[in-house]
Specification:
- Helices cover 52% and strands 12% of the residues.
- The strands form 4 sheets. The protein has a 5-stranded parallel sheet, sandwiched between helices.
- The longest helix is centred in the middle third of the chain and has 25 residues, at 228-252.
- The chain has helices at residues 4-19, 45-53, 57-67, 91-102, 136-151, 167-179, 181-185, 192-208, 210-224, 228-252, 268-277, 316-329, 345-357, 393-409, 414-422, 425-446, 457-460, 468-484, 503-512, 515-525, 529-546, 560-583, and strands spanning 30-32, 41-43, 74-80, 84-89, 117-121, 155-160, 257-258, 281-284, 287-296, 302-308, 335-341, 366-372, 375-376, 453-454.
- By secondary structure, it is α/β, with parallel strands linked by helices.
- The protein contains 22 helices and 14 strands.
- Bound molecules: arginine.
- Arginine binds at residues 121, 124-126, 161, 163, 320, 323, 338, 340.
- Arginine is lined by residues 121, 124-126, 161, 163, 320, 323, 338, 340.
Length: 592
């Protein structure tokens, strides 16, 4: 089923073709009106066409309206200002559309006719350290994009491209060899916390001591030669680090398959020689470099991708080249998405240009980098603990849940207090878990991805406004209407006619029919905040609908038909919130 917007677009496309067959593929430029006075949707197409058709825009607009066949969908169309075409939806058509959504598990999101194989690379931390707040955005944003892609019927691989190789492991090994030979006896006995301590000390030595640094680089070579002792320690450390990562992924309800950098080791020499053979790579001062047109450094000199260092070693770029080739040629990826810190934008731009030039990424392959900004503290500097340390993700999640629990159980009075007191400890913990995670995730996802944002517990835990807890509350409140009225939302008679008369009913209906358009936009623009904004408008639409003064009564509606119709609106609102929150990686609770 096409969304209402899609149907209107199609009707416009047909009208334009009628006017002039050469206009067949003209974008009708339809968007939501900002002011409902001007109808529900508005087309700007006439302004763009006026020159081409040698007419004034209002004349063109009239011509389009004359050719437009939307009588079933629209109550009226009119021309405003210089030539905007305003479209007013017909309530009966809205009602019919809503009835269709009610029986559709995908709420109007059409299952794609052309499933594309997607591969999304997200989270992808460097190992031997605990996951910290710097990994939050990639991990939860990647999960959202993956869920939306799946929801539309595409196939997807979720890849954790962990940093499990290279200099950092050379450093670690050198440090262990020098200072902790006991580790070599039983490397499995160590916890990620120990690894992090080793790592910090190793890094300090590496930065301050040239002899150590040289030895550390030699350890990378030792690893590359598959020296048994080095391999045993490496394997144990990788295993322990990944165990820790997956503990965090489980807490966050995120799923990922680990295919670390080391997986590509055997493919690196081949990639370098292939790029040399097709003249993309050349030697420059002892290193092998790929120079791409248009990339320069600050001084204006050509900026190469270094794919083999002077000592013969490979690096991040080489691994990403091997990975992109593998994902396209061996895994059949047709759209590759990478979610990383925005500071890596240039790396990915160059990677994509190189992959196209090498002929791996053919025309039909879509390549996207999704860059995100930093999480800042209230001082607007990178978010740190009070004593200046890194904020561990585990601590962050635990604190969020603890704060949510306090919020649910404290400062409650009257009926609310009674209700919470009737909950079992287990139920309270479940709610706290859902609310705490919803707060963290929703707040992160509702910010513009490319910008930095300031982390604030108070803001994200607020019970009103565009927050996770508020969304969960809105959902639970709607579900409670069903419970109060003794009706099961999930089994309302499907043939219930929808009655849309009151302005608040109409307004809510017009929001609900847009779900599939929003989902499609999220995946087109790769912006989760389009969905948080939409869900917020759903909850606001519902609040006005249910408002004692401005809205309508549901359980005490004037007639049984009205009551049923309004219950159906409630149920559809709840379904929309639940589905939208699911796509955001957020689990709802029935009561809170
Ligand atoms: N490990 C990298 C980091 O922590 C992110 C890797 C992203 N994926 C990739 N294919 N480069 O910055």
């Amino acid at each position: 089923m096409n969304s209402l917007l899609e149907q209107i677009k199609q009707a416009f496309a047909e009208a334009l073709t009628k006017i002039d067959p050469s206009l067949k593929d003209t974008d009708p430029m339809i968007r939501l009106t900002t002011d409902r006075k001007f109808g529900d949707y508005q087309s700007n197409v006439a302004m763009g066409l006026a020159k081409k058709l040698k007419k004034n825009p209002r004349e063109v607009a009239q011509q389009v309206i004359d050719a437009l066949d939307v009588a079933d969908m629209c109550e009226k169309t009119d021309i405003a200002g210089p030539g905007f075409i305003n479209v007013f939806l017909r309530p009966s058509y809205l009602a019919q559309t809503l009835a269709g959504l009610n029986t559709d598990d995908h709420l109007g999101v059409a299952q794609t006719q052309q499933p594309l194989h997607h591969i999304i690379d997200f989270s992808s931390p460097n190992l031997a350290k605990e996951m910290h707040v710097g990994h939050l955005r990639t991990t939860i944003t990647g999960e959202v994009i993956a869920r939306v892609i799946e929801f539309m019927g595409h196939t997807i691989e979720r890849v954790n491209h962990v940093g499990d190789w290279g200099t950092q492991f050379g450093m670690l090994l050198q440090y262990i060899f020098e200072n902790h030979p006991e580790v070599l006896e039983n490397p499995d006995a160590f916890h990620v916390k120990d690894l992090e301590t080793f790592y910090k000390k190793a890094k300090k030595n590496f930065d301050e001591n040239d002899v150590f640094a040289t030895e550390a680089r030699k350890k990378v070579v030792l690893l590359q030669s598959e020296d048994p002792t080095a391999m045993t320690v490496w394997k144990a450390f990788v295993k322990e680090s990944l165990r820790h990562c997956h503990e965090i992924y489980d807490l966050l309800d995120v799923s990922l398959t680990d295919i670390g950098e080391s997986f590509y080791n055997t493919k690196l020499p081949g990639v370098v020689s292939e790029l040399k053979e097709n003249n993309m790579a050349c030697e420059d001062k002892g290193a092998v470099c790929v120079f791409l047109d248009g990339f320069t450094n600050r001084e204006g000199d050509p900026l190469p991708m270094i794919i083999q260092k002077t000592d013969g070693g490979y690096n991040y770029d080489t691994t990403d080249l091997a990975a992109i080739k593998y994902r396209i040629q061996d895994c059949g990826g047709k759209r590759l998405i990478y979610v990383t810190d925005i500071r890596q934008a240039q790396h990915f731009t160059m990677l994509f240009v190189a992959a196209r030039k090498a002929g791996w990424a053919t025309q039909d392959v879509i390549l996207d980098h999704v860059g995100y900004g930093m999480v800042l503290g209230s001082d607007r500097k990178p978010f740190k603990t009070r004593d200046g340390g890194t904020v561990r993700l585990r601590d962050l999640i635990e604190e969020g849940v603890a704060r949510a629990k306090a919020m649910i159980t404290e400062n409650r009075e009257g009926a609310q207090l009674e209700r919470v007191q009737s909950f079992s400890e287990e139920k309270i913990n479940n709610i706290a878990n859902a609310v705490g995670l919803a707060a963290i995730k929703y707040s992160d996802l509702s910010h513009n991805l490319a910008s930095d944002y300031v982390f604030s517990w108070d803001k994200m835990l607020a019970m009103d406004g565009n927050t996770g807890p508020y969304m969960l509350y809105a959902y639970a409140r709607i579900r409670s209407i069903g419970r109060k009225g003794g009706v099961d939302f999930d089994h309302l008679p499907k043939e219930t006619p929808m009655i849309l008369e009151h302005p608040a009913e109409l307004a809510l209906a017009k929001i609900l029919v847009r779900f599939s358009d929003v989902v499609a936009n999220v995946i087109k623009e790769l912006k989760p905040n389009l969905l948080t904004d939409y869900l917020y408008s759903v909850s606001k639409g519902f609040s006005s609908f249910y408002d004692k003064k401005l809205g309508v009564s549901v359980l005490d509606a004037e007639s049984d038909d009205l009551k049923m119709s309004r219950l159906l609106l409630c149920s559809l609102t709840a379904k929309t919130l639940k589905a939208g929150l699911y796509l955001l990686g957020i689990t709802v609770v029935e009561e809170m």
